[in-house]
Structures are given as C-alpha cells and as structure tokens.
Design brief:
Elements lengths: L36 E2 L1 E15 L10 E10 L3 E10 L2 E7 L3 H6 L17 E7 L14 E7 L3 H11 L3 E2 L10 E7 L2 E5 L1 H5 L34 E4 L2 E13 L20 E5 L9 E6 L12 E4 L6
C-alpha cells in the first residue's frame, strides 16, 4: 500500500482558479446593523508603510509598543445617485436623483424615477459611484456599485438613504479608527504558472524523468480521466479575494501621510485616506471595497499610534 507522506496541494475552497470577471468586485453578503449608516465604502490602494502603536489586545505584548505594517487606501468621496429596494432578494424599483450633473458623470441621460415605500421592500441599498478623477493616479472612469444601508427597519433605512440622495459621502462618515472591516478586491495577476509556483508541489529529484518542476503522476488508471483536484498549470492571480477583520488604524487627510515624491506607481494623495493594519490584495491603483465586519462583536478601541512612517518610497 502506498505511503501518504504529504498533504494535498492547493485549497479546494479557491477553485476554480480562473481570472476574475471584472476589476470591480461584487460583495456577496452584507452584515446587518441597527445603526443608521452605510455599511460599505470603496477606495484605491496607494501603497504600504509601517507604524508603531500600543498593543491593546490580550496578547503577551499587551501594553507594549509594537511594530506593524499598514496599507494606505485613498478614498475620494463617493456620490450617491440612486436608491434601490429589494423584496425577498428581487429588485423592486430604483429611485434616481434628478440632478443631471451627477448622472452625466456615469452616462445616464434618462431619469428613471420610480418611488417606492418602505412597506414594499425588506432591504435598501444606495447606488453610488467613485470619483477616481479626483485622485492623481490618472484614472477617469467611475466605478458604480451598490452599498447596503443599516437601520432598525425598512422605514428607517429608506429615510436615511433618501437623506443621502444626490450628495457626496466621505470615508470618515462611514468608518472610524479602531473599527474592523472586511476587504474585497482582485489580487495581483501573475499570468500562467506551473504547479510548483501555483500549488507549492515538491520538485522532483534531478534524475527522475528529465523534468523537475512537473507532476509525476496525474492520478490512478481508473477512473480513466484526470480528476479536477490534480495540481495542473494554469492562471495564477487576478482572483477575487475577501479578507475579514482588518483593523482601521487611522482615517485622516492626505497632507499628513504623503511621503516625499509620492507613493511608488501611484503618486501623491489628494483626498482623505484610510490606514489599515496589514496588507491588502491587489497592486497600486486597484479598487478596494470595504464592508463592515460582522464576525467581531466587541466595541472598537481607538488605537494609540506612536509613529507612522512617511519616509520616501522612491
């Protein structure tokens, strides 16, 4: 009987490992809240830096100054151009702002105004778009998205969404320092890769078959086909990935975080930014969507920052 000496290579949870359909990732689930607020936002990844802060967790380093990496995401204000109501997962109607200047940016010429009442819906979303033209990275096309609205009931959600219609919302109005959120983004694309890099399989010995970076066996004789779990070469990267429970370290103005010469491959920040502990998926200029975390129930603690590096990245 054969000896199983290693674990299966590659998580089945990430299959199929194919290219994402769009760079604008869809949010599959929103966590509800009784607080009247938007539970999501979006920004553009600018780069990374490092910081030191006082550890306020229950780890052995509690109360000590600790070092961590952090990602800077520029968040120009988003514009709310519509409200969408859902009933049992189906779209009931959309209410679109009559402001033609707002609609012109996303190319909507016909004003669709179909009012609905709170009794007709059980979920309320706002229709928003980003403003990349307000940044210095050169992108002009706005990304359109849906963002869920929090509240105790449909009436409260609709009332709050109506108050935002036709207005701009800043990131500081949605997320605060110390809060936890989930990030949804498209990872860096790495093209077509082999099994060693794609799945981490072992290289064969030098005199095995004349090849080293390939799979020695594609499986048993029967069934007479290659099973889908066998590591094979293929697309690596440019996948939609969701990371949960990322901590917001700070929300601030661009002038206090810009390094000398700007961020590499991005430029100089012109809008408010959000500083998130750790790394995020995607390269510079990639759209990052935020969602209120639903797996942490503790109240947010504002982190005590000691130092945030603004050294030149050039």
């Amino acid at each position: 009987m054969g000896k199983r000496s290693g674990h299966k290579k590659g998580s089945v949870g990430f299959r199929p490992r194919k290219r994402a359909i769009s760079q604008m990732p869809a949010v599959g689930h929103w966590f509800g809240t009784d607080e009247k607020r938007l539970v999501g936002f979006a920004g553009y990844k600018a780069g990374m830096t490092h910081l030191t802060y006082i550890d306020d967790t229950e780890s052995p380093s509690k109360g000590n100054e600790v070092f961590a990496s952090a990602t800077i995401v520029e968040c120009p204000p988003i514009t709310i151009y519509g409200i969408r109501g859902y009933k049992e997962g189906q779209v009931v109607s959309d209410m679109i702002t009559p402001d033609e200047k707002i609609l012109k940016i996303i190319g909507i010429t016909r004003k669709k105004i179909h009012n609905f009442t709170a009794s007709e819906v059980d979920a309320v979303f706002v229709l928003a778009y980003t403003r990349p033209d307000m940044t210095g990275m050169g992108r002009k096309t706005a990304e359109r998205m849906e963002i869920a609205v929090g509240g105790k009931d449909s009436a409260e959600k609709l009332e709050y969404a109506t108050s935002l219609l036709g207005k701009e919302v800043k990131v500081g109005d949605v997320f605060k320092a110390g809060e936890f959120l989930d990030t949804i983004a498209i990872t860096k694309g790495k093209g077509w890769q082999g099994t060693v890099k794609r799945f981490g399989t072992a290289q064969q010995r030098r005199k095995a078959t004349g090849k080293r970076r390939h799979i020695g066996s594609l499986g048993a004789w029967h069934p007479g086909y290659v099973h889908y779990t066998v590591p094979m070469p293929g697309q690596m990267g440019y996948h939609k990935r969701t990371e949960i429970n990322k901590r917001v370290m700070k929300v601030g103005a661009a002038s206090e975080i810009n390094p000398l010469g700007g961020f590499t491959h991005y430029g100089v920040l012109k809008n408010n930014y959000i500083l998130i502990k750790g790394s995020l998926a995607g390269p510079q200029k990639r759209l990052i969507r935020f969602r209120k975390a639903g797996r942490i129930s503790s109240a947010p603690k504002v982190p005590q920052l000691i130092f945030v590096s603004t050294a030149s990245k050039q």
